[in-house]
Specification:
- The protein is mainly α.
- The protein has eleven helices and no strands.
- The chain has one domain.
- Helix 1 runs antiparallel to helix 9 and helix 7 packs antiparallel against helix 8.
- About 2% of the residues have low confidence.
């Protein structure tokens, strides 16, 4: 494995994780959330994730596992790993309370209203718990970005962009409560920005513990799980939120647009 590829994959993971800071900036410089933009953007992110998972990641995982275990056993292992990835991210979501769950996306004005009604300790606790929740959630997302970029750099770029888009609202969920609790924009931005560091930490842990043992079988299992994680995030979090906060058709337009962009980008690297 070339060291340059490792640095490239880690760099993409860092950028995707730190996009929470963009959400913080949005929260401080706007008083109302642009619902149409958010709906299209989240739909776009879901489209990229679903398309790349089913068209690119799943077949590559199956090819690797078929090579290592034979067609029948390899195919069963691919499907099992795919759904096991869904189970992992579903369990993580269930363990995090709704109030602190970064995937329960809130509008800027909703967070502002909370600030007007709540005391500082409660807000600080909310922001801190959300930052902790983001750290937990971003571990598998970091592994998703890192593994994909390591296997296929062009694929890694597309996935990093999709994950970065869906990390932006998480920055709002961390920064606004902390800002209203402390009155310090810099502190709120810093804590929100740093909460995204768990993504490259997840990638680093994955690299240190998994990469020394990486062969076709291990790679196939991880990649299939990555596909499952991405599809679950899209169906359970991104699309419902996009439809809830925007016009119904906008999320689907974004979804189709994301799929088209992902399809063209993959064709360009054939």
């Amino acid at each position: 494995m070339e060291l340059d590829n490792v640095f490239f994959a880690m760099g993409l993971t860092v950028l995707a994780g730190l996009s929470t800071g963009i959400g913080s900036a949005f929260a401080f410089f706007t008083k109302r959330t642009n619902m149409k933009f958010l709906s299209v953007a989240l739909g776009f992110s879901a489209g990229v994730m679903i398309y790349v998972s089913m068209i690119e990641i799943f077949p590559k995982a199956q090819e690797a596992l078929n090579s290592a275990m034979g067609k029948v056993v390899g195919s069963w292992m691919t499907v099992t790993s795919f759904f096991f990835g869904m189970v992992i991210i579903a369990v993580i979501d269930r363990l995090v309370p709704e109030q602190g769950n970064p995937h329960e996306i809130r509008k800027v004005e909703e967070m502002t209203d909370i600030g007007a009604k709540s005391d500082r300790d409660k807000l600080m606790r909310m922001g801190t718990m959300t930052a902790l929740a983001i750290a937990i959630h971003n571990f598998p997302e970091g592994l998703v970005t890192f593994t994909s970029a390591l296997k296929d750099p062009s694929l890694g770029i597309a996935i990093a962009v999709a994950i970065a888009i869906h990390n932006i609202p998480e920055g709002i969920a961390v920064s606004i409560p902390i800002y209203f609790a402390t009155g310090d924009k810099k502190k709120a931005f810093k804590l929100s920005f740093l909460s995204g560091l768990s993504e490259p930490v997840g990638a680093l842990i994955g690299y240190l513990f998994l990469m020394p043992f990486l062969n076709d079988m291990v790679f196939g299992i991880i990649f299939a799980m990555v596909g499952g994680i991405m599809v679950f995030i899209s169906l359970d979090e991104l699309l419902p939120t996009a439809r809830e906060y925007g016009e119904a058709h906008l999320s689907i337009y974004g979804l189709v647009g994301g799929m088209m962009v992902m399809a063209v980008s993959l064709l360009l690297f054939i």
